[in-house]
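WARN no homologs supplied; continuing
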Amino acid sequence: MAEILSVATQEFANKGLAGARIDEIAAATRTSKRMIYYYFGSKESLYVAVLESAYSRMRKIEADLHLNDLEPEDALRRLVEFTYDHHQSNEVFIRLVMSENVLRGAYLSQSKDIQKLNGSALQTIQALYARGVKKGVFKKNLTPLEIHSAISALSFFNVSNQHTFGLIFKGKSPQGKAQTLRKAQVVDMMVSYVCA
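OK structure emitted
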């Protein structure tokens, strides 16, 4: 099943739900369409499983950052660096998220586990933020969702818009990509936003 999910992740990221083909996933995994349908039920259910798997991988790594062992500002920096690095090295994840947004979240909303999987992200930020406020390091009156959204937005853009941005501003950014926001800049922006 892990191999099917891995191949399906690439297929859905490259072609979207509509363009992905179960027969191509079956051929690449040396299995049959029938076996894939046996495990997942439908192409749409496989797509939901791929989305859940992608989010789950990110949250598992995030949980291993040991942010509670760091001072609040250092923990914030580490979280932002992780998110930036994760997105930079996982274009497939970004493409899946973009595809599901084009579909207006229609399939992710069918997941029974997605809220639980991603609730940990807000819990992590809530714990970190509460520690920072208590120590007088962080501003008051921010919410975990606002902080998470800002980190995501600043980390997502370079990957999600790299092709169009690179073409529009050709020659202005390295390798024709939208590398306009460097990791250090994103970290500094988030520290300025959250810190007192």
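The longest helix spans residues 43-63.
OK
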